[in-house]
Write a structure and sequence with these properties.
This protein is of the alpha+beta class. The strands form 2 sheets. Strands 1, 2, 3, 4, 5, 6 and 11 form a 7-stranded mixed β-sheet that branches. The structure holds cytidine-5'-monophosphate.
Length: 296
Amino acid sequence: MSPWRVICPAKVNLGLHVVGRRSDGYHEIVTIYQAIDLCDVLLGEAAEALSLEVSDTSIPSGESNLVVKAARLLQARCETARAKGARLRLDKSIPAGAGLGGGSSDAAGALLLLNQLWTLHLDSSSLKSLAAELGSDVPFFLFGGTALGTGRGATIDPLPPLAHRVVLLGSPPFGLSTPEVYRALQAPLTADRADVTVPRLFVKFAEGNDFALARNDLEAAAFRLRGELATFRDALSRSGAEVALVSGSGSTVFGLFSTGTDVTSKAVDLRGEFPGWTLRVCQTVASGVRIVPAVG
Ligand code: C5P
């Protein structure tokens, strides 16, 4: 069986409203996901047993890795996958605990790769529901581009692509835990705030590319846990970003800039001001996880 390669992009959240607490312990959110060109690469070929090697040794490669969880989920649900194995290798570029959806994108990539390698013939709606079982952000990566996320973030409606933007990512030398950030939310929340007009407002703001309204309700909680994120966000705003926000539950803070802005020199300045932070200049992209035959 020939080997396959999946490009797994990161995302930022162009806005994230927490509109209620759900009875299943999750929060009801409305968000706009945007894929960017910072990517992990997942390689896979047929093998007797299932194994995963991760380029970044600080990331677990065992059963807790979402790639392995995706494989186990396929084996549990598809008779034909039960006896199959795969040798998988994950080359990480997306930092973990960063709010960039790296693990979720890898999981979506694993579903695509193993569907192909194990000839499971799962259609896109089956893949989407398996993705939602793996995590709230996972279904988005099967779409990519610009998309509205509702419910716990797993219900995806594609939006017209955002006009191309340069994205400056600032990642501090620590990650944040998503459950911990949600627990640190202090605003009073009831499920009745899950108003149907909110998604419509979001669609309008995405179509008009009007970021004046953009806010992330998880930001205050992330700032409470790590004050330096607010300091960085303010510096990014001062540097001329159209919008500067924490991505998801953090710890990455990003700024959007229109095409043609000299973002590299802004990154150099911020790197001097914030030692220990990793600054990356990225681009918005219209795709999600992409599978291609691996050659060489
Ligand atoms: O779905 P996922 O596994 O990515 O979520 C991780 C954790 O983040 C959940 O267990 C929950 O504590 C929190 N979460 C939440 N509401 C969401 C998404 C995540 O409370 N919409």
